[in-house]
């Protein structure tokens, strides 16, 4: 079966358990439509938790087989909300051993993410994770084919955020700081990292 042009460049990188389904569609970038960060006050009786929250969507509608009586065979657009909370006095979500963060549940896909060290130089005040960071996002999608096989796609993408670049906000006298997007949406150019037949016959 002839591989579709969208994924042809990736074929040498993957092991396929069986033939690639007849995938059609143009891959559009993900969109981060909202994002907010918060760092706490150091005043007595305050609760020292920082957080990063964002919403991300995948606008793609990827078809992998002709429409079935049970519905579309493919990966429809999806969106989720992601968040991570930590105590900045004892924890750092950028560390390599920080567990993978789960996003809100959606019925057609699984979103996860990690926070990584910021890669934009905004001076000494930009070292705080809530002011300068990279959001590394993963998307895993599965669908049952008419043959009974289960086809999986895995994507990865990341976006950089920094105050004064694509974030803005303010700090109060108590030390509380809040930042959000100064421009939106932020586009995330994702990459297909795996296309696999997990089980059964995926030759359609």
What's this entry about, in short?
It is built from one helix and 13 strands, in the order αβββββββββββββ. The protein is mainly beta.
Write a structural description.
The chain is mainly beta. It has one domain. Helices cover 2% and strands 49% of the residues. The protein has one helix at 5-8; strands at residues 30-39, 50-58, 62-68, 71-75, 78-86, 101-102, 109-117, 132-144, 150-162, 167-171, 177-181, 186-188, 191-199. Strands 1, 2, 5, 10, 11 and 12 form a 6-stranded antiparallel β-sheet that branches. The radius of gyration is 20 Å and the shape is elongated. 26% of the residues are buried. Keywords: Signal.
Based on secondary structure, the structural category is: mainly beta
Order of helices and strands: HEEEEEEEEEEEEE
What oligomeric assembly is this protein in? single chain
The number of helical segments is 1
According to DSSP, the number of beta strands is 13
N-to-C CA distance:
9 Å
* Shape category: elongated
Tally of domains: 1
- Biggest sheet character: 6 strands, antiparallel
Give the low-pLDDT segments. Answer: 1-18
Could you report the average pLDDT, rounded to the nearest whole number? 85
The fraction of residues in strands falls at over 45%
Helix content: under 10%
| CA gyration radius, whole angstroms | 20 Å
Keywords: Signal
Signal peptide: 1-19
Topology overview:
Elements: H1 5-8, E1 30-39, E2 50-58, E3 62-68, E4 71-75, E5 78-86, E6 101-102, E7 109-117, E8 132-144, E9 150-162, E10 167-171, E11 177-181, E12 186-188, E13 191-199
Antiparallel strand pairs: 1-2, 1-11, 1-12, 2-5, 3-4, 6-7, 7-8, 8-9, 9-13, 10-11
Keywords: Signal
Signal peptide: 1-19
